[in-house]
Amino acid sequence: MNTIALATTGDHVGVNGVALAVLIALFALVTVMGFMASKWRRSSLESLDEWGLGGRSFGTWITWFLLGGDLYTAYTFIAVPAAMFALGSVSGFFAVPYTIVLYPIIFIFMSRLWSVSHRHGFVTTSDFVGGRYGSRGLSLVVAITGILATMPYIALQLVGIQAVLEVTGLGGSGNVIVQDLPLFIAFAVLAAYTYSSGLRAPAIIAFVKDTLIYLVIIVAVIYIPSKVGGWDHVFAAAEHKMVTPDPVTGKAPGAYIPAPTQYWAYATLALGSALALFMYPHSITATLSSKSRNTIRRNSTILPAYSFVLGLLALLGWVAIAAGTAPIGLDGKANAQLVVPQLFEDMFPSWFAGIAFAAIAIGALVPAAIMAIAAANLFTRNVYREWFRPSATPAQETKVSKRVSLGVKFVALVFVLTMDKQNAINFQLLGGIWILQTFPSIVFGLYTRWFHRWALIAGWAVGMVYGTVAAYNVVKPIPGGTQHFAGSVAAIPVLGQLGYIALTSFVINVIVAAVATVVLRALKAPAGADVTIKGDYFADEGDPRVRPLDEPVHLTTPTV
Q1: How far, rounded to the nearest angstrom, does the alpha carbon of residue 336 sit from its chain's CA centroid?
Q2: How many domains does the chain have?
Q3: Alpha carbon distances (Å) from 116 to 119, 130, 381, 540
């Protein structure tokens, strides 16, 4: 057993030097790779197509690693087993079926989005929405929603790095600059190579990240259970914990098998999360970087390999129960988010624990970089250029996007350092509710122009307000009062069952948009100009109608 960083006074007992050295070495390796990525397939990075989408040139394997690195984040590594450890299958294992549901969605929807974006040079979903509906207003609300939903997601990647650093023994009380210095260094490195290399940096680092994660999880699910009595003991220990009432509250802490009253919550969480995940800007960015329509489809058939790994990862939360893992932070308080790093610290030799820690830390760098690029592209294309500098050149757009990507990461860093970690989680849950409200404008628009642009804005507004208020009203008692935004499940209107707030908001959004469309069409409200044609949604690599990358593009009319 290795040095365990436990504290009752806020100061760490010791640092696992070997594990930390391995972590630093692998971190240094990917840092060099990040900077060298600017020379990979060398071309000018003075356009968003090159800096922000990697030249739209990534093939099947690069896209597979990039999407895997993008969707399966460091916080996935931390949060899913933590939920299984603390609350059981309803809160944790729903992530496995939702990723399975996700890939048919990618196969059907994303290939059409890739085609129309490739044909017109769209860089963001807001570009597509603006061109499809001839509405700068609808494009703007989709962009703002994407940016707001992405910010806490970036912050949670830094939380994942913090969890690893805390278990290795770095941190504690004292000077805030000293205790958070490793996080500042990680932030600076991330910001620097993203600025210089754009999307090529996370694309090349994703190879290392995913290889490490596959290695660590496969070793963990074979080696650790054998050390704690086998899988029979693992499941028995998890069931005992989940069904044994807490002596203070008198309630069981979670669910080993979902009860009938939890079926709706489980199903709506899985379906709503699947619908929402590919609405996030970073998912779209990774998709649009592919070189062909079929690359997207091929990836949707091989990405389920990550779902298999995610299932194994989730079970590590229950392995930690059997192992008696005590996830205690450097402040002396129990923190379920530390359970997987602490399990690795306790059970692995120091050198392999370092590899495992590196897998988590590097697993934060890849998605954080893509998220920052995606949010910056949204701001540059759909706020800065569309509303303030319509004549901006591709080079000016890229310069603004690079600077905004730095600002986005800085805000995320401040968020992590100044706010309670639970608030970061709560805001990320809120981001999932928000981002799903862009689904009608984006996905429905891939197939039909029936919905009116103003009706889509009305549906979006009602869904956003309902979802935010419903999430705020989810409270839990804490010492000295109550905590709002304490979950993402609430009673479904009419049905009365507990369900995912995002999906309920989405249904309300669609109903409002449909009713408003009927009214607006009856009133003959102007529908806006559509710059796309039917054939655009089937375009592929080499299509002669594709706009050259260096040709300026104007996506929307001045109407709203």
Answers
A1: 20
A2: 1
A3: 5, 13, 17, 9
Domain with residue 374: its CATH number is 1.20.1730.10
Cα–Cα distance for residue pair 295/293, rounded to 1 Å: 5
With a cut of 70, list the residues of the chain below it in pLDDT. 1-14, 40-44, 171-179, 420-422, 544-560
Residue 67 belongs to some domain of the structure: yes
What pLDDT score does 351 carry?
93
CB 75 within 8 A of CB 265: no
- Determine how many CB atoms are found less than 10 A away from the CB of residue 294: 14
pLDDT of residue 435: 96
Quote the CA–CA distance of 456 and 439 in Å, as a whole number: 10
* Residue 366, SS3 per DSSP: helix
Q: Where are the alpha helices (DSSP H) in 419-551?
A: 421-436, 439-443, 453-472, 501-522
Give the C-alpha separation, 107 to 298, whole Å: 8
> DSSP labels for 26-62?
HHHHHHHHHHHGGGTT-----SHHHHTTGGG-B-HHH
Q: How many residues would you count in the chain?
A: 560
The token pair that represents 408 in the structure block: 């986005």
Measured distance CA(301)–CA(303) in Å, rounded: 6
Rounded-to-integer distance, Cα 192 and Cα 253, Å: 43
User: Could you give the CA distance from residue 388 to residue 503 in angstroms, rounded to a whole number?
Assistant: 35
Q: Is residue 112 part of a domain?
A: yes
What is the residue range of 68's domain? Answer: 46-439
Packing angle of the helix pair 230-243, 200-227 (nearest 10 deg)? 90
Q: Does residue 333 belong to any structural domain of this protein?
A: yes
Opening angle at CA 244, ends 89 and 163, nearest 5: 55
The amino acid that residue 485 corresponds to is F
In the chain, what is the straight-line distance between the N-terminal and C-terminal CA atoms, in Å? 63
As a whole number of angstroms, the distance between CA 363 and CA 407 comes to 21
Rounded Cα gap, residues 514 and 117, in angstroms:
26
27-73 pLDDT, tens digit per residue, is 889 888 888 877 766 566 778 888 888 888 888 888 888 888 777 77
Residue among 496, 434, 113 nearest 290 (CA): 113
Q: Is residue 16 part of a domain?
A: no
Q: What is the dihedral of CA 484, 71, 111, 148, to 10 degrees?
A: 40
**What DSSP letter does each residue of 179-211 carry, written as one string?**
HTHHHHHHHHHHHHHHHHHTTHHHHHHHHHHHH
Which tokens sit at 486? 């304490």
The residue assigned the tokens 């805000």 is 411
